[in-house]
Amino acid sequence: MSLAGKGADVLIVGQGVAGSVLALTLQQRGLSVHVVSAPDRPSASLVAAGIVNPLTGRKLVKTWEADRLFPYLHRFYSDLSRQLNTPFFTPLDVYRPYRDEKERRLYQTIAADPELLPYFKSEVDESAYSTVINNPFGGIQVTQAGWVDLPAFVAAVRAYYIDKACFSTGHVRVEDLTIQPDSVTYLGNIYRHVIFCEGPHGQENSLFGALPYNMVKGEILTASVADYPLTNIVNQGIFVMPLSSTRIRIGATYSWHELDWKTTDAGRSFLETKARALLKIPFTVIDQQAGIRPSVTDRRPLVGWHQTYPAIGIFGGMGTKGVSLAPYLAHDFADQLLLGKEINPAVNISRFHSL
After folding, report:
1. How far apart are alpha carbons 216 and 150 in whole angstroms?
2. Which residues form the FAD dependent oxidoreductase domain (predicted)?
């Protein structure tokens, strides 16, 4: 592998959602970038559902920094979709059918919170869901959510950088880097910074392997349906997301064991059982995928610079919410790099320097 030209301001290692978003953000801020992606590594981004949802969990907990993240990500992905001429971003709502009367009362209390009020639709057309979904107690509708078609997004970004001769395939090994205090040389090319965006493979990087990853395996299904009329995501323990009028996605499982990229009969059975209880209409599973989410023990991303080598950085550990987190955190990282602003302590890897 050889890199084009004489290097760049930043070498981005990895081209999943984190690497793609960071590369585009730094370029938008005036830096030159070169992106390298390993061709034979499984990618968490290519099997992730790509859902952005401001209120998650059974108790509808607001996503960390949601008030900043969600307006920003909607603008970011919408603008980028137009720029790359690829319709990979779809704003959607999330309909949450109540499990019982107790949950109905709980959700209505949550929805009355002034801080959460902007995230709920005031009027829900229950009849639009009742022909497809088992919702005898009604439901609540969360706004400002959406879906990023990650395979389409990653492919569009890759094509963009290939066209600019700023993309290469290959493995960037730490031992092949010549690291200076203010630069890094790789394959004869000099970079001001090298930033690793390797997702779950980051734990194999000797420079950052001591960081406390806590990987989570997830599985999703794709199913065919005769005529699916809903255009929003439905969530009740699992999600059902429309891909088209004849195809839906069902997910997801969570496992901290058997951390491999293989699908399982247990995962398929769990998701099918949940989906058949939720849906009134028949469906046929046509595909199953598994991936490893790059989570961290404290459930916050890993952003910042190596303690010993300040020209080496990391932008990863996004966990289950990388699509939501990456745009705004990339903006903050660019502010630090260009303006010297402090990285948010909640995500700065300096919180783990004792390791």
Report:
1. 19
2. 9-335
